[in-house]
User: Fold this.
Amino acid sequence: MKSLVFAVFACFAATAVFAYDPLKLREATAGAPLDFTVQDANRDRALPIRVYLPVVTNAAPVVLFSHGLGGSCQNNPYLGKHWSARGYVVVFVQHPGSDESVWRGQRPAQIAIAMKQAASAQNFMLRAADIPAVLDQLERWNAQSDHALHHRLDLSRVGMSGHSFGAVTTQAVSGQSMLGSARLTDARIKAAIMMSPSVPAAGSAERAFGSVTLPWLLMTGTNDVARIGGMTIGGDLASRLGVYPALPAGDKYELVLNDAEHGAFGERALPGEGRQQNPNHHRVILALSTAFWDAFLKSDAEAKAWLNGAGPRSVMEKEDRWQHK
Assistant:
């Protein structure tokens, strides 16, 4: 009897010790991120990128991040630090024309107008083309013996992510159909996370998202609307919530954080946002995003079981919403 009790206890202890935890940092922080510039000669376009490397020096899965309107590759360091400490090379891409240059030096009265103009179809297409250009350059640097990224990148396992305009960029390169059934999908991308997604301004959501085959994780909040100078820029809440119902079943997930505003996915509240940020929102974002990457870029069965089971609820607050299909 004692041996049976001991065996049960040992099994329980082993389970407790080795239980999957997406918030546990398995590796030390690798130090300061590295900054590079991707020169896209075909478009005469220079793309700043910031790279967070894991401590391990063997080739690691790669996660790209596209900033929102008016942002830069220096945004969202909390994501870069956590994901890299979990064994990913994290690449933050900056998009000229819809980055911080839009508002820097502008008079306050002109910022909203400049931002609205920058949220254009032209900049959308430029952004969508930036992602394959960066991936092409990463492939070259990975093979270049004298480069800091030499043999550090496993480009057979690429994740794509972004916030707001960056979420729209992510949608475009990871499976969304454009008007006329055109696609901008990059086949190297294996999974995608959209923070503050939105449905297209023209055409139906079903046509845009009905044939997405990749795993997608959508994140938004109940107050996720970007307002600048009294103007709404990007999608409203109905647009944010309209993506998930249009997706086909099969590794599709949606998180809705209670009371989260548009700035909840960044480091600080955005101008015009009145609520104090809830520190648990970042905890939930990190936990769910890490489990998602582990499940679909590392094929970690425990991570997927955590994601599809009670794991998300263990870090979320009661009013937060979570669903998958």
